[in-house]
């Protein structure tokens, strides 16, 4: 049985399949790379966020150590609230 080349060129079909497979492999590689990079980015963002939170809390504590009368009741611990009543 012979394939009529005017209906279906086998070489073109094989080339198309090969191109499609390469495109899919490239896409999978790109998505894999994107996933790794996004995980690295998320970890870096979390680290920076924690570092900034530490700095903010330290500066807030330093400020309230110097200006304790400005510390809101919601920030005070039980001992500070008790001492204020005296």
Describe it for me?
By secondary structure, the chain is mainly α. Helix content is 76%, strand content 0%. It is built from two helices and no strands. The chain has helices at 10-66, 78-85. It is rod-shaped and about 95 Å long. The N and C termini lie far apart (105 Å).
Topology, please?
Elements: H1 10-66, H2 78-85
How is the main sheet built?
none
Strand percentage: under 5%
Total strand segments: 0
Low-confidence stretches at least 5 residues in length (pLDDT < 50)? Answer: none
Straight-line N-to-C gap:
105 Å
Radius of gyration: 33 Å
Secondary-structure content class: mainly alpha
> Mean pLDDT, as a whole number?
85
- Helix content bin: over 70%
Using the alpha-carbon principal axes, give the shape. rod-shaped
Order of helices and strands: HH
Helix count from the secondary structure assignment? 2
